[in-house]
Specification:
Layout: H1 2-44, E1 87-90, E2 99-101, E3 104-111, E4 114-121, E5 127-134, E6 151-153, E7 156-160, E8 165-170, E9 176-181, H2 182-186, E10 200-202, E11 205-212, E12 216-222, E13 228-232, E14 243-247, E15 250-256, E16 260-264, E17 271-276, E18 287-289, E19 292-297, E20 301-307, E21 314-320, E22 339-341, E23 344-348, E24 354-358, E25 364-368, E26 380-385, E27 388-393, E28 397-404, E29 407-415, E30 436-438, E31 441-445, E32 449-454
Antiparallel strand pairs: 1-32, 2-3, 3-4, 4-5, 6-7, 7-8, 8-9, 10-11, 11-12, 12-13, 14-15, 15-16, 16-17, 18-19, 19-20, 20-21, 22-23, 23-24, 24-25, 26-27, 27-28, 28-29, 30-31, 31-32
Length: 459
Amino acid sequence: MESSLLFVIKFFHICIMYFFIRTILRWALHIKQSFLFIFICSCSFTPGVKSLSADDWPQWRGPQRNGVWTETGVVERLDEPRLKNRWRVPIGSGYSGPTAAGRRVYVTDRLGKKERVHCFDAFTGNKIWSHSYPCSYARVTYPAGPRASVTIDDNRAYSLGAMGYLFCFNAVAGNILWQKDLRIEYDFKLPTWGIAASPLIEKNLLIVQIGGKDNATLVAFDKITGKEIWRALEDPINYSCPIVIDQAGKRVLISWTQKSLSGLDPQSGTLYWQQPYATRNGIASPVVANQHLFVSSYFDGSMLLKLDSDQLKVSVVWQRKGRSDRITDSLHCCISTPLLLGDYIYGVDSYGQLRCLELKTGNRIWENLRAVPKARWANIHMVRNADKVWMFNERGELIIGSLSPKGFCEISRAKLIDPTLKQLNQRDGVCWAHPAFAYRHIYLRNDKELICVDLTAND
């Protein structure tokens, strides 16, 4: 009897230990999973971490607004005379180049009397969302459509139309977070070709160049709420996009207006320096390299400034304004933003001439007419990738080449898209919108469609 009772007690003891150990193990596994979940969440939502990846092209001329494409694993040459599209989707007309972030592509267009903002899947072309709004173009020359590219930051998409309609969208869902009619709020005089400069993100601010009254050439808004933070300058605006650079240990906002080149504190709008420079139609962005700042206009020639590395000051190195056919005259850029490479400047003149200038003098080293057929306002958009320059010309051709003081070396060329007439109702049309390079693909548009072409190198 005693042995039977002892057996029962041992049996219950073993059962209790089994359930106890199993409970402990379950709790341990639960705690481990919880910590893992918390760790993953903390990594995903750490304050200050951007939602953009290194492969994105989230704004005008790329991640740093400098026309540099850093992806590797792309083709070394274009082997077919016409490359196949990965996908193509119909859109309306416009000059705004596409941008890409979060594996989505954004572009604006005009259809009838409406401006539209679109978001597509970067790999399938499927439309994710679209927003349209009434927008009659009053006194806008070349009225094909919007000019400014969509700027994406922290899952927000900022669009600016030709008449000054500014929107902040949820970049994923497309709902409007805030919006402004800048023409009403700031009473600006509309430029001949409409508002063109793409919005700029700098830390917590969205900076737009609109040429408003009461010291509102530039206006900075809180990028989350849309509240005005500062306004600066009284100059009438050009069409050139502002940029932000580093100088003398400070962040400096560069704005090129019809009266001057100005360097400002991007957080307060305080003027650091200003260089008078009267221009009528500055379109190309300012470019900066090796402590030099260069600008070029098709009517008013070019100017090179030296950026002081110790103080927030600039000095003029040279300025050239003259006839574009003289060998000693420099460069008269229209739409194309030039490149500064080493001791030389490369850019496209207003008849499509690809030119090389000596940096220190502005003297012309060579001129080439092969990259795009010669025509008034003929255009090439240039993007650097490693030691090569990728050129998308107005005929819809993509060229891989190199630039040096010895000349332009074309490696290969292929047709990507057909020119269309609404951007310029001459020749058989043009492609003037800047392409986006992202995910080892190129995204480009004309007045009828947005297309995607895969540029991934074969293993």
